[in-house]
Amino acid sequence: MTTNDPPESPAEQGKALAKHNRRATARQGLQPTPATQRFTEAMLAIFNEFEHNRRAEIIAAGGDPADDRDPLEYVRVIAEQYERHQDPQERQAFINSVADDLDLDDVRALRVAGEAAVAATPELIMRNVGRGMKPPQIAEEIGLTPSRVYDLIRKERQRAAHEKNTITAAEPSADEDRASTHDDAAGRRRWAREYRRQQNGDTP
What we know:
mainly alpha, 2 domains, elongated, single chain, about 75% helix
């Protein structure tokens, strides 16, 4: 697929994963196991159902399904399927499918993107807290425990308070500001007197 081609739908991505899995099995001279077959069939059914429902919702709303492309669709599919398949054999079959579908550069991009997402998590949590969202709801949506979300909120508030105190300590007080202004004015008066003496030829 070139950079100018439209992104694939989830159903197309699922079929591609299944195709890669079959090719890998064939290259190894192995017969697909019943677990692998069940997993592949389940994946295709999930992808097709999702695509059908998505298109129906968009058409019902008067939109064009081709215009509704989530750039993170493929990443979401990987995450959802990885969490869904808890059986060790089925999960390994899924991992093999993902390994067939990705290359080293893809994995690097996903890993770095994951690090960026982790780094952005505290900021994202605080923004949603500011909008009135409760920590337990944030925890459910972001996939963290409520205690972890509360801990991140506490640390972010401590950090913000520390930064505020640091800025306040660096600012001059009102008395210091008045003293500085007074010193500047006195210095200007001394300079003016010295300048007049020089102009008049007076000696100090």
